[in-house]
Amino acid sequence: PPDTVPQAPEDPLFGLARAYKADPSPNKVDLGIGAYRDNNAKPWVLPVVKKADDILRNNPELNHEYAPIAGIESFTSKAAELMLGADSPALADRRVTSVQTISGTGAVHLGALFLAKFYKGNRTVYVSNPTWANHHQIFNNVGITVAQYPYFSKETRGLDFEGMTAAISAAPERSIILLHPCAHNPTGVDPTPDQWKQLAVIIREKKHFPFFDCAYQGFASGDLARDASAVRYFVEQGFELVVAQSFAKNFGLYGERAGCFHFVGAPAADAAETVTRVASQLAILQRSEISNPPLYGARIASTVLNDPQLFAEWEENLRTMSGRIIDMRKALRSKLEELETPGTWNHITDQIGMFSFTGLTEPQVMKLREEYHIYMTKNGRISMAGLNTHNIDHVAQAIRKVVGE
Ligand code: PMP
C-alpha cells in the first residue's frame, strides 16, 4: 500500500541545481554542477566529439540493433587499453575482462553487485571520508556494508595520509578498498606516487581487494597516462582488482552514459580461465539488469579511441578543459590573496581536477547563496568549471566578505 513508502529526501546535488535555476539574479554563479563549462558558463561539446558524430551520421552501415551483452567490443578493448596502458602485462596475458556499462555509475554498480554475489573476503567496502555520496547508496543497495577511512585533513586541506593508512591497516583482512585514482571527488586531493606505493604495500599485506573508481582520467593533469598511473601501478604489482571507468567528463558525454567495468585477474597459470568464468557471471548480471548497454556514447568514444588522429585531437581538447580549470585555480587563489582574505589559499592550486574543497563552512556557504547568488554544496565544495573570467571577481570578493566577517 502506498502509505508504507516513506518520503525520501531529494538528492542534494539535484536540489542545488533546482535552487540555482529558480534564482532570477543575473549575477548568479553555479559552482555546484559536476560538469565542465566553457568561459561563458556554457556546456562544451568537444570538437572531436562533433567530428566523431559526423562520421557516425555519414556511415550508412550503422543501425539500431542491440549491442552485445558486454557491449561494443571495439569500445571496451580500447577503453581497457586507455586505462591499463596498451602495453599492460595484464592485457598481454589476457587477464582482463571488460563490460560496457551505464557510465561510471553503472560500472561501480556492476562491480558492487558482482562482489556482493561472489566476493569471498570481508564484504565491507572502505570508502574515503568524504567520497562521492553515491558510493554509499550503490554499495548499500547490493548489501555490501560501507565503512570509511579518513582522507581529508581539515588543518592542511590536503591528504590525511596517516589517518588513511591507519584505517586501511586496521580494517579486517580481505576488505574491499575503494580508491579514486585521480582528481578525488569531492576534495580534489590525491595521494602522491610515493604514497600510492605505500598504499599498495599495506593493501597487499592485508590481502585487501582494490576497487578503483576512475571518473576523471585526463581531466586532472590533462595527461591520460599520468591520471591512470595509480591503477597501472597496482596492476604491475600483480593485484587482482576492478576498475570502474567513466567517459562522462573526459568526453563531455555526461547524458550518453558511456562507461566500462574492468576485472583484472592476478598473474597466475590459470588466470585466463578465472577471467573467463568472471566474464560469464558478469554477462548474466548485465543481462538481468540492462540486457545490453546503449550505443551512441560508446560509438562516439570508440570512433575517437580507434583513430590516432582523432585521439590526438581528443588529447588537445582534454588539455583545453584541464588548462582552463588550472587557470581558474590560479586566478581564484591570487585574487583571494590580493584581497587579503583571512586564512591560507594555497590548497586551491594544490588540489586538482574538477573540484576544490574550499574549507568554507556551512553558514558561509549559505550566506554566499542567499546574499551573493553563488551556489555550492554545503560541504564547501566548488566546481572549478563554474568559474570564468566574467564571474571570478564577484566570487572572490564574495568569499572575501563572508570569510572576513
Ligand atoms: N565516480 C565518481 C567519483 C564521480 O565523481 C562520478 C561522477 N560524478 C561517477 C563515479 C559517475 O559518473 P557517471 O555515472 O556520470 O559516469
List keywords for this structure.
405 residues, alpha/beta, seven-stranded mixed sheet, two-stranded parallel sheet, 16 helices, globular, binds 4'-deoxy-4'-aminopyridoxal-5'-phosphate
Structure summary:
With 405 residues, the chain is an alpha/beta fold. The protein has helices at 12-22, 47-57, 73-84, 89-92, 103-118, 134-141, 161-170, 193-205, 224-227, 229-236, 271-289, 296-305, 308-338, 346-350, 362-372, 392-404; strands spanning 29-30, 96-102, 124-129, 145-150, 176-179, 209-214, 241-246, 258-264, 355-357, 374-375, 381-383.
- Major β-sheet annotation: 7 strands, mixed
Q: List the secondary-structure elements in sequence, H or E.
A: HEHHHEHEHEHEHEHHEEHHHHEHEEH
Strand content: 5-15%
- By DSSP, the count of extended strands is 11
The class by helix and strand makeup works out as alpha/beta
Tally of contiguous helical segments: 16
Distance between the termini: 52 Å
Written description of the protein model:
This protein has 405 residues and is an alpha/beta fold. The protein is built from 16 helices and 11 strands. The strands form 3 sheets. The chain has a 7-stranded mixed β-sheet with strand order 2-8-7-6-5-3-4, with helices on both faces. It has a two-stranded parallel sheet with strand order 1-10. Strands 9-11 form a two-stranded antiparallel sheet. The protein is globular, with a radius of gyration of 21 Å. Bound molecules: 4'-deoxy-4'-aminopyridoxal-5'-phosphate (PMP). The site of 4'-deoxy-4'-aminopyridoxal-5'-phosphate has 14 residues, from helix 5.
